[in-house]
Amino acid sequence: MTIRLPDSGGALRTYEPRTEPLLVTPGTPFTSRTVFSAAHVVADPYADVSPDSPAAVDWDATLAFRRHLWSHGLGVAEAMDTAQRGMGLDWAGAAELIRRSAAEAKAVGGRIACGVGTDQLAAGTLEQVRAAYEEQLAVVEESGAQAILMASRALAATAKGPEDYLDVYGHLLRQASEPVILHWLGPMFDPALEGYWGSSDLDAATDTFLEVIAAHPDKVDGIKVSLLDAQREIDLRRRLPQGVRCYTGDDFNYPELIAGDEQGFSHALLGIFDPLGPLAAEAVRVLDTGDTAGFRALLDPTVDLSRHLFQTPTRFYKTGVVFLAWLAGHQTHFTMVGGLQSARSLPHFARAYELADGLGLFPDPKLAEERMKTLLALYGVTQ
User: Fold this and answer.
1) How far apart are CA 94 and CA 150, in angstroms?
2) Looking at residue 366, what is its pLDDT?
3) CB-neighbour burial class of residue 357 (10 A; exposed 0-12, middle 13-18, buried 19+)
4) Is 366 exposed, middle or buried (0-12, 13-18, 19+ CB in 10 A)?
5) CA-to-CA distance for 274 and 324, rounded, in angstroms?
6) What is the pTM of this model?
7) Mean of the per-residue pLDDT values of the chain
8) pLDDT tens digit sequence for 29-39
9) Which residue of 90, 191, 278, 286 is most buried, as measured by CB atoms within 10 A?
């Protein structure tokens, strides 16, 4: 069987899907790396909502997907940008997601860390930014999850310079009951975060970031870096205090960063590990045995798919992630909160399908093919 797919120029080409998936089964817990998958949310397709309405979430399907990730040994990074935080999911929805997912993690023994931000606040004073962070930190800590201090649009808009970041983050770290993960999200993921840490000069911003950590090393479990710059991440992780982890958030260069070098390695907190979950878990277990070449042999071929999903405008990578979850059978529909299923083109979807199918990511290749043909038909492509 073949399928006709549109290319970037609008021409149709013939593709022959694979007939068997890559066989990956759950295994033992990881020993060499701590790995989180940032997980997407599943919309309720029957909700009568508009793109401006509060998110309507299918909680059963959303939690089922988290159980899928936990079953393969992955941690879940909850209520992050992959869950459309600030792009369809508001704070009220995120708070409910945190509570439900943390309870589910406790029930199944899964690892979970949750995003703490200020998205209940459009803008405000530094005092209001601190209060917004505090409110969210309390929700996460009360749920029993680890906190991830996310970058704040409100702080980026309010801060006058590095000293304001030092003040706000120092205040929060002193309050945190357990070590947190600090998240540096680059402007390619969210343009409103340009100049974070008080400067658009990344060297100066890095110095401020490290100053925050150095002042409170006992309250920082690690940092999540999403700048899509492998060398900058390597340089940064080499400057971290002893015991503070680097979690790569680089969806372009993750195999080499996780594999590491003679001076260290990165752990992982990645949106691409949502669609790659079982394959990524298998690769890390190979790495646990000391087989770096085997790890790279499994994970390197996935980079083309990741770079495709995260191509500019990078913030719309969530659309591809949810699209692949639908093709893989993790949800019954391709609908997203905020109507974000419209954020990528048909040629983009076609290439994502082809790359994912080539990797064997679909547990049922025939189902994925049928669903891809359904989408093509909606766009007027006949087979």
Assistant:
1) 13
2) 97
3) buried
4) exposed
5) 9
6) 0.96
7) 96
8) 899 999 999 99
9) 278
